[in-house]
Amino acid sequence: MASTGQQFAAAKAGVPPGVKLAPDEAVSLVKELAFAKFDETVELATRLGVDPRKADELVRGTVVLPHGTGKSVRVLAIAQGEKQAEAEEAGADYVGVEYVDKIQQGWVDFDVAVATPDLMGKVGPLGRILGPRGLMPTPKAGTVTFDIGKAVSEIKAGKIEFRVDKTGNVHVPIGKISFSEEQLKENLQAFMDSIVRARPAASKGVYVRSVTVSSTMGPGVAIDPNLYRRI
User: Fold this and answer.
1) Rounded distance, CA 14 to CA 201, Å?
2) In terms of pTM, does the model score above 0.85?
3) What is the pLDDT of residue 80?
4) What is the pLDDT of residue 111?
5) Tell me, what's the pLDDT at 231?
6) What is the pLDDT of residue 116?
7) Residue 145 backbone class (left: φ over 0; alpha: ψ -120 to 50; beta: rest)
8) Residues in contact with 190: Cβ distance below 8 Å, sequence separation at least 6, in sequence order
9) Mean pLDDT taken over the chain
10) pLDDT at 230
11) Which residue of 193, 197, 208, 216 has the smallest Cβ count within 10 Å?
12) Residue 20 CB-half CA count within 13 A
C-alpha cells in the first residue's frame, strides 16, 4: 500500500506544471486527484498585491457561500431578553450572557461568536482570550449586531469571514470533496467576487496575484488570476 507521501507525489504528477486553469477545470482536477479516505476540505488560497502592514491596504470581509462549507458550525450568541429568543430560534447552539463567565474560565468550544452591541461592555474583556483564536465578535464581520437572528442564520447557512494574513494571502474553505463540481465552482466564484469587491482603494498594480485551489491532503492547482483582474 502506497504511503501518504507516495500518494501525494502521484497526485502532484497529475497537475500540469506551469499551467493555470479555468475554475471549473481546476475544481474538477482537485476532485479527481483527492486520495484521502476522509471527506477532505477544499481550500482556496489567493495571493493579493497589498501590504497588510498598512491599515488602508487591509483586506477583510464576509461572504455567504451558496452551498456552505460542508462543516457544521457551532454558533455562540451572547444576547439577552427577546434577542436571546431570536438567536435560539435562528439555530444558535449556545445562547446567553452566562457564557461570558464560561469563556473567562477557559471554555471556547464554539466556532463563531455573535453578540448584541449593548453587551459589548461585558464581551470586550474577552478579547485577550478570543482575539488570538479569531473568535472575537466584531462589527466589521457582522458579528456585533442587534439583528442577531439574521447573523446566526447566515453563519449557519455558510457565511464565512476572510482576512488577508501578514504575507498577503487569504485562505478559506470553499466546501468538501464530496460536493459536486458545480457547487464548488459556485462557492469559489462567490468568494472571488467578494475578494475583488474588497480591493482597497490604496492598492496599486496587480491586485489578484495568484489563485490556487487544493484539497486538505492534495496538491495545489493554479487558476488563471487574469479572470479576476477587473479594472
Assistant:
1) 39
2) no
3) 96
4) 93
5) 42
6) 97
7) beta
8) 63, 64, 65, 66
9) 92
10) 62
11) 197
12) 10
Cell numbers given for 175? 466546501
Q: Which three cell numbers stand for residue 168?
A: 498577503
Helix and strand counts by DSSP (H, E) for the chain: 8, 9
Q: Cα-flanking dihedrals φ and ψ of residue 42, to 5°?
A: -95, 125
How many CA atoms does the CB half-sphere of 79 hold within 13 Å? Answer: 31
Residues present in the chain in total: 231
The CA–CA distances, whole Å, from 223 to 33, 106, 191, 199 equal: 16, 41, 14, 19
In angstroms, rounded to a whole number, what is the distance separating the alpha carbons of residues 200 and 61?
11
From CA 85, how far away is CA 58, in angstroms rounded?
Answer: 36
Q: What is the pLDDT of residues 14-38, one digit of tens each?
A: 788 888 999 999 999 999 999 889 9
Using 70 as the pLDDT threshold, list the residues of the chain that sit under it.
1-2, 230-231
Q: E-strand spans in 24-178? A: 41-48, 60-64, 75-78, 94-95, 112-115, 159-163, 169-176
